[in-house]
Amino acid sequence: MPERLEPGRIHVAVDILIFTVREGRLSLLLARRKNPPFRNYWALPGRFVGLEESAEAAVRKLLAEMLPVRDVYMEQLYTFTALNRDPRGRTISMAYMIILPWQKLQAALEEEDVQLRCFGVNHDAGGLYLTAEGEEAITLTAGDLAFDHGEIIRTGVTRLQGKIDYTDVSFRFLSDTAAFSLSELQTVFEAVLDTPVDSSNFRRSIRGRYEQSGRIEQTVQAKQQGRGRPAVLYRLVK
Amino acid sequence: MPERLEPGRIHVAVDILIFTVREGRLSLLLARRKNPPFRNYWALPGRFVGLEESAEAAVRKLLAEMLPVRDVYMEQLYTFTALNRDPRGRTISMAYMIILPWQKLQAALEEEDVQLRCFGVNHDAGGLYLTAEGEEAITLTAGDLAFDHGEIIRTGVTRLQGKIDYTDVSFRFLSDTAAFSLSELQTVFEAVLDTPVDSSNFRRSIRGRYEQSGRIEQTVQAKQQGRGRPAVLYRLVK
DNA sequence: ATAAATATTGTCAAAATGACAACAAAGTGT
DNA sequence: ACACTTTGTTGTCATTTTGACAATATTTAT
């Protein structure tokens, strides 16, 4: 990747937000940049879009190069086109959101270099910031990240929160959609919204919305290892 | 605009959906293409993005060249990147939605060539189609429109319907946000959703959502020309 | 004056929501 | 064994929201 891009034309890139829920916290995968500009900064994984591929295909390739995963949820987030967002030259970036169960992501990460890390998304009065063990906290408004990736992440987190309770994205965080408990699903909601949820009301609303219509149903097995009472397992239909 | 674009690079364009509500029907501005490809087809107004302008700036320029309007609502819809969407070469299109009160749009159109027309958005079992007086109906799925503009329009209408009742976009259709009646606002909702709305429940919800919080308030004047009882006028605050 | 048109308010049962209490089934520790 | 903790699950109940519709108000048209 050259330090200076071909002048006189607009370059088109994709950047991806890989979301997961890890230990009850919404988290995001960042890559440490090996090359200038922003060398050694944390950044969203990205890639230029080839002449013979759609943006979705570019995202799939980028993903395939990074992690051995398949069948992932993918959604176009927003296209960022500010003039000076890339010091190398004129570049626009199409941001895509990807959701992976932590189990899958973790397994995939172990086979890789340590240039990738999963950061927890934290909320406080000042806004969002990202943390990981042994790393300094990353502010999203203060140029801690490469390019305009702080803005992209803020946009993504807001979108995710906005749509979690009227779409099916929450299920994409589950490691096994054929056997999950409502508590696990509740953990996803609590992590994404960063707020506690009343179990009773939560299961009422989920069952009303999904069980009635047959989108989820109880499985025969109901066992589970752990401390407390075993949970009834559900599966996502179709 | 050349028939063949410079090869070896991706071209970036913006296409705009100018929505309005006209005579109680959601409507959309289309332009008849003067040049190939798709010569004489109806299409969304579009423009290539210059090297020194953001996508928003390109949209504003396109709009300024077409219509003498200012201070319009603008929202990025989606970026379309399919490989063969433009026969001239590799082009991606960033679609933007724009909302204009019919009064403004109509005034602006009268000063223009007849290459621009406002089409009504109609819903039936087969999906969406567009109509205008003296024009054949335009299907959105059957290649009646240039490029992939049918798909873009479907995406836009769906998005607009999806967000009308939890955002403020409905107000953007009003010709005068300093003096409008709740009936006028209701007409906007009915047009966008293409379904009748109960007046009583409608005003209860609008007033609960906006009057309580001070976003709208009654104006002193309450007169109105017309047949029936004059409506109380509201104004959007700030 | 009457009718038609439009705007506005009121009512009321049904449904959804939020805040809790209570109960159930497992493991842990003494 | 027993009490205790942890996790899952169901129940309750007052409040709020919603949907359907009736009733009233104020204007123009005939």
Descriptive labels:
2 domains; 238 residues; DNA-binding; 28% strand; nine-stranded mixed sheet; homodimer; elongated; Arc Repressor Mutant, subunit A; three-stranded antiparallel sheet; alpha+beta
What are the SSEs and their pairings?
The structure is a homodimer of 238-residue chains.
Chain A: E1 11-22, E2 25-32, E3 42-43, E4 46-48, H1 55-66, E5 73-80, E6 91-99, H2 102-110, E7 116-124, E8 127-131, E9 138-139, H3 149-163, E10 180-181, H4 182-193, H5 199-211, E11 216-218, E12 233-236
Parallel strand pairs in A: 1-6
Antiparallel strand pairs in A: 1-2, 1-4, 2-3, 2-7, 5-6, 7-8, 8-9, 10-12, 11-12
The first copy, chain A, binds a DNA duplex (30 and 30 nucleotides) through residues 181-183, 198-201, 203-205, 208, 224, 226-232.
Report on this structure.
The structure is a homodimer of 238-residue chains. By secondary structure, chain A is of the alpha+beta class. The first copy, chain A, has 2 domains: 11-163, Nucleoside Triphosphate Pyrophosphohydrolase, CATH 3.90.79; 172-236, Winged helix-like DNA-binding domain superfamily/Winged helix DNA-binding domain (Arc Repressor Mutant, subunit A). Helix content of chain A is 26%, strand content 28%. Chain A contains 5 helices and 12 strands. In chain A, strands 1, 2, 3, 4, 5, 6, 7, 8 and 9 form a 9-stranded mixed β-sheet that branches. A 3-stranded antiparallel β-sheet of chain A has the order 10-12-11. The longest helix of chain A has 15 residues, at 149-163. The radius of gyration of chain A is 19 Å and the shape is elongated. The mean pLDDT of chain A is 94. Chain A binds chain B through residues 8-12, 49, 51-56, 76, 78-79, 81-83, 90, 92, 94, and chain B through 8-12, 49, 51-56, 76, 78-79, 81-83, 90, 92, 94. Chain A binds a DNA duplex (30 and 30 nucleotides) through residues 181-183, 198-201, 203-205, 208, 224, 226-232.
